[in-house]
Amino acid sequence: MDISFKVNHPITTDQFIGLLESSTLGERRPIHDRECMEGVVSNSNLLISAWDEDLLVGIARSVTDFHYACYLSDLAVHKGYQRSGIGKRLQSLTQEQLGPLCKLILIAAPAANSYYGQIGYTHNDRCWVLDPGATIGN
């Protein structure tokens, strides 16, 4: 298997949705909302992708300032390519694009929660999420 990795290589919305569907991440993303998915792809400012020839088999999609914080929003690897080191390589390549003080931040999928501690991430229980439609009150 000869996988190539690319930094900020253009991907289509259909390629992105197809990868999410072929990984476990599609279950937790609004893949049936095309407008949302188009916005997700077009507004990311760091995309590291893994390719098996013309097939997108992995992605690390981030929003970052490159200096202080990088939010790794999506890390997805096609089910047929998992456990081959692609996910780790995507994260390493993401980290290589960042400044020396930039933190890599993510919210783990429930099934992957134990994975990140094993590869060097520190657990932080201070994350807060405001769901769409929720009102900020006093």
From TrEMBL:
It comes from the Bacteria. PROSITE patterns: GNAT. The keyword Hydrolase does not apply. Residues 3-138 form the N-acetyltransferase domain. It comes from Marinobacter koreensis. This is GNAT family N-acetyltransferase. It is an enzyme of class 2 (transferase). InterPro entries: Acetyltransferase_Butenolide (IPR053144), Acyl_CoA_acyltransferase (IPR016181), GNAT_dom (IPR000182). Its EC number is 2.3.1.-. Gene3D superfamilies: 3.40.630.30. It holds the Pfam family Acetyltransf_10. Keywords: Acyltransferase, Transferase. GO terms for molecular function: acyltransferase activity.
